[in-house]
Specification:
Keywords: Membrane, Transmembrane, Transmembrane helix. It is built from four helices and two strands, in the order ααααββ. It is mainly alpha-helical. Strands 1-2 form a two-stranded antiparallel sheet. A hairpin with a 4-residue loop joins strand 1 and strand 2.
Length: 110
């Protein structure tokens, strides 16, 4: 799926989509910076904002999980096929499933 082949939804911004993407990215960056900054200065044990520590731990855990857990363990091929067919409007129960061998026979493709 590429930006050129992506189907627009009912709420489509047209030529204003990229400036809105930029504005959204900048606004989220600002809010993130405000939320993880200290509440009071000078920072001591009582006024320390632990959001940075929690966010860092979650990020490190996610990266380590991404590198060491195989993709098939957390996102199986049959989930991808089912999601893509549901998005295309194909009834997924019509197909022949043989996921133990890693193959899937599409109901409309021979």
């Amino acid at each position: 799926m590429t930006p050129a082949s992506f189907k627009g939804s009912y709420f489509y911004l047209g030529r204003f989509r990229r400036p809105m993407y930029l504005a959204t990215f900048l606004f989220n960056g600002l809010i993130f910076a405000v939320m993880i900054s200290p509440f009071y200065f000078p920072v001591d044990a009582q006024s320390f904002n632990f959001a940075v520590v929690i966010f860092g731990a979650v990020t490190i855990f996610a990266l380590v999980s991404y590198w060491f857990i195989p993709a098939e363990k957390w996102l199986r091929q049959e989930q991808i096929v089912q999601t893509m067919e549901t998005a295309e409007g194909v009834d997924v129960l019509e197909g022949t499933e043989d996921f133990t061998e890693g193959t899937y026979v599409h109901p409309h493709v021979e």
